[in-house]
Amino acid sequence: MRVLISGAGIAGPALAWWLAKTGARITVVEKAAALFPHGQNVDIQGTARKVVKKMGLLEEVLRYNTTEKGTQLIDAKGRPFAPFPVREDANGASATSEFEVLRGDLAAIFYKATKDEPNVDYLFSTTIEKIVSNDDESVKVQLSSGETQKYDVLVAADGQWSKVRKQVFPKDAITVVDKNMYVCYWTIPRLPMDNSWWNIYCALRSRIITLRPDPHGTIRAMFSMMPCNAAEKAAWEDASRKDRKLQQELCRSHFADAGWQAQRLLSSMDQASDFYFQAIKQIKMSKWSKGRIICLGDTAFAPSPLTGMGTSLAILGSYVLAGELSKLNAGDHPAKAFDSYETIFRPFVEEMQQVPWIFPDLVHPQTAIKRWMLSSFLSLLSKIVAIPWLASRFNGADNEDFKLPVYAQFEGEKST
Ligand SMILES: Cc1cc2nc3c(=O)[nH]c(=O)nc-3n(C[C@H](O)[C@H](O)[C@H](O)COP(=O)(O)OP(=O)(O)OC[C@H]3O[C@@H](n4cnc5c(N)ncnc54)[C@H](O)[C@@H]3O)c2cc1C
Ligand SMILES: *[C@@H]1O[C@H](CO)[C@@H](O)[C@H](O)[C@H]1NC(C)=O
Hints:
Elements: E1 2-6, H1 11-20, E2 25-29, E3 41-42, H2 47-54, H3 58-63, E4 70-74, E5 80-85, E6 101-102, H4 103-114, E7 120-123, E8 128-134, E9 139-143, E10 148-151, E11 153-156, H5 163-168, E12 174-189, E13 198-203, E14 207-213, E15 218-225, H6 230-240, H7 244-255, H8 262-268, E16 276-285, E17 289-290, E18 293-295, H9 298-301, H10 310-326, H11 335-352, H12 368-384, H13 388-394
Parallel strand pairs: 1-2, 1-11, 2-7, 4-13, 11-18
Antiparallel strand pairs: 3-6, 4-5, 8-9, 9-10, 12-15, 12-16, 13-14, 14-15, 17-18
Helix pairs in contact: 1-4, 1-10, 2-10, 6-7, 10-11
The structure holds flavin-adenine dinucleotide and 2-acetamido-2-deoxy-beta-D-glucopyranose (NAG).
C-alpha cells in the first residue's frame, strides 16, 4: 500500500510509525522547511499513554518533560496562591500532568522514531498543490515540486486549517465551533525570578497572562483573552486572519494595562522566533473520509486546547486508523478500513470534544467580583482535591478512557 500523508505535526509522524509496521510505503510531505517546533505544553492522557508505551517511546517522552512542578494562580499583587502540585499518583488534580511535553519536542520524538525507517520518506518544503483524481483505482496528486504521483491512500494531517481538507470536502461538511477565545504563545529568556510552576494571572476584562518553564532553559509565555464586546471580537477575529505584526500590535494595546508581568512579555514579543497566534475553535466533520482520502488529528476533529485532548486524539486516531488499514486484504478499497475506523473512534472523539464546564468563561473574569469568586473557589479547591471522587472528576489521566482495539500486526512490539 502506498500512503501519502500531508503534515509532519503529531498525527502525521505517529501514523507513519504504525503504518511502517504494516509494510506500507509512506511519504510525508511537510510545508515547513524543517520540523515545526512551535507550541507549548501538550498532554498525553489515558489510553494514548498506552499507545506511546507500545511504540517504546514513553521513556523518551518523560525525558523531555517540561519540568513543571504544578499550577498556581497569581493575585493582583503578584503573589502566588491556590497551588495544585503535579501528583505522581492517578488521584492528583492539577492542570499540570506528569506526562506534559512541549508540542515541538513530541513532534521531534515521533519524527526521529520514523525518519530512518526504510519505507518512510519525509519531504520538507513540500505541499500538495492539487488533487488530480480520487477514484476506485488510486488517488493522484500534484506536489508543489511539480511531480505527479499516484497513491492508494491520502491522509490529511496538516492541522486545523488543512489545505487538503479544503480541496476535498465541501464547506457544509465542516463545522467550526468558535470558543470565543484568542491565545498567543511565544518563548522568552528565563530570569532569576522565574520559578518552575505554571503561573496563571487573571487580569480583569477577561485577560490571562501565564508563564511556565520548559526543559530548554527558557520560559514559555502566553496571553489569552475573551472579547468583552462586539468591537473587541471583531478586532481579534480580524487579527487571527492577518500577519504577526498586526497581532502583536493588538496585544500591545490590549494588554498594556493588564498588570503583573505584562510589560516584560510585551517587550519580548517581537524578538520571539516562535510567536504563534491562535483563535480557539473546534473542528467537526460529518464524515472524516471521501473515497481514498481521510482526515486525521486536528484536521478532522480539533477539540481545542481547552479540552487538553488534541494530542491524545491524534495519537489514538493514528493507531486505530493504521490498525484498520492493516486488516485489509489485497485489492480491498481503503474506504472499508476508513468506515470501520470511524465507527470505532467517532463516539470517543465526540465525547472528548465536550469542553469542561469550568472553561473558558469562568477562568476569564471580566469584573473584580467575578475574579474574587474565581480566586476563592480555586483556593478552596486546591485544599480539597485530595478527595478522590473530586480529583478523578478533574484528572482521570491514568484511566483507560478509550478501549484500545488489538491488531495482530502490532502485537509483539517492544515496550518501555
Ligand atoms: C504552532 C502550533 C502550536 C500549538 N500549540 C499548542 C499548545 O500549546 N497546546 C495544545 O494543547 N495544542 C497546541 N497545538 C495543537 C496540537 O498540536 C494538536 O491539537 C495535536 O497535537 C494534533 O496535531 P496534528 O498533527 O493533527 O496537527 P498540527 O500539530 O497542527 O500539525 C500539522 C502539521 O502540518 C503542517 N502543515 C500545515 N499546512 C500544510 C500543508 N498545506 N501541507 C503540508 N503540511 C502542512 C504544519 O506545519 C504542521 O507541522 C498547536 C498546534 C500548532 C500547529
Ligand atoms: C524530567 O526532566 C528533567 C530535566 O530535563 C530531568 O532531569 C528528569 O530526569 C526528567 N524526568 C524523567 C522522569 O525523565
